[in-house]
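Reopening this ticket.

The earlier resolution said the output was attached, but the attachment link was broken on my side. Pasting everything inline this time so it's all in one place.
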Amino acid sequence: MKKAAKLIFAIIGIFAVCFTAFAACGAREWNNTQADYLTADTESNNGIGSSVWQKKATPGESDGAATENTLDEQSARRKFIKDIQASIDTAQYEKCAADLIAGAVAVGGHVQSQERHAGYNRANKYPHNPLREAILVLRVPSDKLDSYKTGFEKYGVVTNITETTRDVTLDYTDLDARLKALRTERDALLKLLEQAESLQDLLLAREQLTKVRQELDSLEAQLRQMDDLIVMSTVTLQVYEVEELRSDEPKGFWASAWEGFRLSVSVIGKGARDWAEGLITILPFLLLIAIAAVVVGLIVKGVRKKRRRKKALTQANYLPPQQG
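Inline output:
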């Protein structure tokens, strides 16, 4: 009896499994047939529906387009801080510095700081050449940075340029999330203050609210600073005055030889000029030394003359008498 019951339950289970499998296959076939019918029907009715159902029928293309759109949106939402550092040699020092500042102002920027140094000398490249140097720190809109950078060549020879781009999206997102959480906590504490029933609850809520407001002010200041760095790029320019601009472009043998010869003559001439300037500079000291030497010489000569006279008198006093 037990064996018969087990056999019956086994047959019922097999039938249930088979029925479920057939039902699933039938439903899948019906769905495919319905999708094909709807696709064909929409294609025959209008072009708009056709494009929609065609995209549905080709999921690979749809996924690719959606992924591309998503990447474009993500790229547009990313936050970057762009900075530039450059060195410029110019023979027109004042004009170059003024034009660089005017160019930044023209695109919506401003001067953050500037330093001027007189008598700066880069002896490794321009020996014996007294130069002036200006260090300009400018703020330029990040979307106008490329157009402003292309104008550097108009003001002189760009000897060095460094561009840096920092992706601060994660830091910006984290800071924004912390601000939202603190604002929510602040609002909750304000409601708690209104509903406080005891003095202790009121004091605790006020103390916590003070801490939250302090942290909120600090984070808001950081976010404003980050927004400023994102919107306005920092451009640091070192402008060097030179007597003659030199290009780093490759030259032929004779051109390089002639330039080397001319540079050697220039160095010798500048060395002689520096020597003459140095001699003229120390001329007063040389005159003082010469006067002191003359005075000392006269004193020594007088002392010696006096000693010789004294010695002669001494010898005359002690001479033996002559015999007649």
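Reporter confirms the inline version is readable. Strands lie at 80-90, 110-120, 131-141, 157-167, 232-241. The chain is about 65% helix and 15% strand.
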